[in-house]
Amino acid sequence: MLGGYAITRWLSIGILFWASTSLVASAAERISPPSGLYEAQSCSSGDQRVVPTYFQEAEPKPQPPAAKPSAQPKAQPAPALPPPQANPFLNNQQPRFMPNNQRYLARMSRAPDMFGDSRVPLTARIQNANRNEFDVNLPFGGGSHRFKNEHGQALPTDRVFGLYHHFENAINVTPLEPGTSSASRDLDRFTLGFEKTFLDGNASVELRLPMSSTVGVSTPDIVYRSETVGDLVVTLKGLLYADDEQAWSMGLAVVTPTGRDVTVVSPTSGASGASLKLENDAAHFVPFIAFQATPTDDFFIHSYLQLDTPTNPYSAQSVVTTGPTSPSSVRNFRVTDQTLLYADIALGHWWFRDAEAQFLSGLASLLELHYTTALTSPDQVSLKDNFVSFGSQSSGNDVVNLTIGLHAEFARSTSLRVGYVTPLRNDNHRYFDNEITVALVYRR
User: Is domain 99-443 in CATH 2.40.160.40, yes or no?
Assistant: First the structure.
């Protein structure tokens, strides 16, 4: 009789045999070919053999005759695409030569110009033969013998412009003693000019010619008048640096003495009197630094720092007559104008822009602050029985003006601009009571 160990061994062998046969049968089912995959073929001995169909040689299928090669049509060139239209409000301009290999941005070059506050007269304090003193604004041709950058920006630009300024109470005779008469007149000034770039747009030259209305002032103590054509201004400007958001430039404006001279007559009783003739023979140099920024697509900033200095004194002549038989006292002398410092800043905002508009393509507003101060003292000349002092008599000559302006752009190239200027200080620190300016500008 078998023991327990033998029984267990034979049961194990049987289980292993059954499991192995089951696995072999399962594998055979998985690799068996489907029906129709095998065919019976006769051997040369007459026996049948089974041959898988995938081992049989397939009969060759008839092939269609090869087609004769035909000439291939020549490839037609793709039609040329029209050049993309530049959007003046996006940064899609092609690179141009600039310092530091930077670019002009369309949004910066299209920023509206600063308005400015324009007129700075030559002031004088005159004492006549009757010992009466007057403060007067001497009206050189064109309304002023000085120049301040206005309706401009740091970037050199190709443009043609016409400017109009109306100054209220700009020609004044202010007596310092009671009992003498005063006078005040408005002044209208027109300016024609153009700016042309060169050196790949990195520099420009600008010409301006101011013309004013003829204004006469006549009181019992002071008589004078302003002439029409003013001093021609030539400005050279060069770009120092520009990147995506800012631009710096510097330049020099030269005020050439092309305007008329000015003569002030102070009549007294009888045949006595005095006259003062001031020849317009002094040029002015106005070096400046300009800054411009566009921190966003809608906001822009302009800033100028300018120094107005005379290159030489004016030639002057004083004639004093004390009676019909007394000889006239004539004296020739020279007068040096004051050196002035101008500081300007303007903040602007685009309210509307449409690059594809055929009529109104943009609308912006500006708020500006302008400061003028004298760096030198007035030049005083003592004459027989009277004296004359040229320059502002107020300490510091600190003039502060506020400008607000509206800029409308048409068809991306023509601008119509309207601004208003008001002084922020009292009568001793202002050159006019208010100013209205209108500009028409065409830019390439």
Answer: yes
